[in-house]
Amino acid sequence: MQLDIDRLIAYFGGVNALAEALKEHDPENAASTAAIYKWRTRGSLPLAQLQKLTALAESQGRPLDLNAFLQQQNTLEKQTMPQNNRVIIFDTTLRDGEQSPGAAMTKEEKIRVARQLEKLGVDVIEAGFAAASPGDFEAVNEIAKTLTRATVCSLARAIERDIRAAGEAVKPAKNRRIHTFIATSPIHMEHKLKMKPKQVIEAAVKAVKIAKEYTDDVEFSCEDALRSEIDFLAEVCGAVIAAGATTINIPDTVGYSIPHRTEAFFSELIAKTPGGDKVVWSAHCHNDLGLAVANSLAALRGGARQVECTVNGLGERAGNASIEEIVMALKVRHDVFGFETGIDPTQIVSASKLVSTITGYPVQPNKAIVGANAFAHESGIHQDGVLKHRETYEIMSAESVGWAANRLTLGKLSGRNAFKTKLADLGIDLGSEEALNAAFARFKELADKKREIFDEDLHALVSDEMVHLSHDHYKFVSQKITTETGEQPAAEVVFTANGSEHRAIATGSGPVDAIFKAIESVAKSGAVLQLYSVNAVTEGTESQGETSVRLARGSRIVNGQGADTDVLAATAKAYLSALSKLEFGGERMKAQGDI
């Protein structure tokens, strides 16, 4: 039999506390923190040290029963591997992620993201909220026609019109799901729904039954579940299970819960719900307190077997649980959780960069897994350790999540067929020969400026070209920027508005300010600039600059993106792109709630 060394050390308060206690108990023969770490690494400790621990415990007035720390003992709260260890990864980047201010995507952009998510190995892709607008319906429907492996899902309120729209939208999918929801917390039922608990149960059951007309795969969500009364929640969940729901989602809608309570809540709810053992339980956690990933992992320990997440943690307010963090936590700490997913981790960075490019939401450098600094070591001690043995300061390799997998490349001698083949590998389908020819011409222009074209360059180039080929109100033509130290910068920008060419000139406090003022002298949009950012698409001084502009007018917020090796040209493109969305972007229906 073998001692559980981790549990034994934890009994004394952890490594540092144990080292201090041993030092106080026997200063001359105390074990160091380094020695205690070695015990944990080896999974054993010398007999003499074990005797010292026994003596230490006695001196503290709590005799040590070593039988309780034998790994075979049932009395020990040791980690056991779950029998049902497959976790379903449900990605809602295209629905909940799109609720980030200004992050709305076009149909073509959604299809590109969906293809990458399928390549990543996501089990269920929530493609949108089909009833929100004709454009949303069309995007969900097109994704349903495009994907071949992943389950395509549409969200719907517990309203017949929403559910039927969702059912029709996902109908072409090989694997399809309808995800319907209604609020269950007292505060939501009273102040938002203005419904009695009995009415909520009736609406939930009716919604599931309508959804079953379109598919056997029906997910039901209790909005604001973790602030709901657990007995009422068990009653609602039992009723929808009886009506045919196959997945029950328990969202932390406002990011209020904390991990140990989340685990206990799931465990108790599953036990109390009639038929709770016949469905898949799911967690959907928001990040308002920075605990979305921790709460999702806690839910798995409590009995959930599906987690709902987004690429880069994108989403409303502080966002959602990050798919990359959940997946790698389960993979790296398999010894703790014992769960498996169907995700290919080498596709994580590609998915992150694509979503960042399309939505205009840059990834912060210190973001776990996908941030530029995630595998960078500045400290000399860290650098020395990593050079000698990577595991000293890295718990996973950069290559394992795809950082080195995108080094390709095309160059100026690459032909049209090689370009087309590479786009297909990246999941990009431009839809027509005209679009392909235009993108290839842009590629050749870029190849004259850059010696190597990386995957990220192609995503940025295609995003920029799709804007150019779209029916945008504003399109960039050219510009001339004059800037000199001690002189006020000036910008002359040529662009079209509804097909008519305009030449605008303005000065500003800097070249970017001058560009924006020049465009506004014609557009007169009345918009307020909320955000302007510039990011290098790849390494090196030849890199394309990818710019994001966020504009607000009244309640509307939009993002515009532009890419060019000339960051000032990219800046003008991004501003014009945002203006087009502001002036002519379709209005979307707001759901009565958010899970």
TrEMBL record:
One term of GO molecular function: manganese ion binding
Chain ranges of the Pyruvate carboxyltransferase domain: 87-349
Keywords of this entry: Acyltransferase, Amino-acid biosynthesis, Branched-chain amino acid biosynthesis, Cytoplasm, Leucine biosynthesis, Manganese, Metal-binding, Transferase
Binding site for Mn(2+): 96, 284, 286, 320
Catalytic activity: 3-methyl-2-oxobutanoate + acetyl-CoA + H2O = (2S)-2-isopropylmalate + CoA + H(+)
Pathway info: Amino-acid biosynthesis; L-leucine biosynthesis; L-leucine from 3-methyl-2-oxobutanoate: step 1/4
One GO CC term, this protein: cytosol
Cofactor annotation: Mn(2+)
A Gene Ontology BP annotation from the UniProt entry: L-leucine biosynthetic process
Function per UniProt: Catalyzes the condensation of the acetyl group of acetyl-CoA with 3-methyl-2-oxobutanoate (2-ketoisovalerate) to form 3-carboxy-3-hydroxy-4-methylpentanoate (2-isopropylmalate).
Entries under NCBIfam families matching the protein: carphisopro, leuA_bact, PRK00915.1-3, PRK00915.1-4
Family (UniProt): Belongs to the alpha-IPM synthase/homocitrate synthase family. LeuA type 1 subfamily.
Subunit structure: Homodimer.
Protein known as: 2-isopropylmalate synthase
Annotated source species: Neisseria zalophi
Gene name of this polypeptide: leuA
